[in-house]
Specification:
By secondary structure, the chain is mostly helical. 80% of the residues lie in helices and 0% in strands. It has 3 helices and no strands.
Amino acid sequence: MLMDILQILFGLIVGAVIGFFISRSVTKKYLKKNPPINEEMIKAMMMQMGRTPSKKQVNQMMKSMEKYM
């Protein structure tokens, strides 16, 4: 009786850990393929702040965003 409960608990814990790592890797792949912010969004944001962005500035912003993903 006690061994059955321990086996069920062990199975749930192992399943939760495996599920966490699988979902984490799938989410990372999705965000790398479809980034939440692209160059057009950065340009629009800088234009709203009253700045005319150069290509170099946009590339710098993209690199800094990729660093945190």
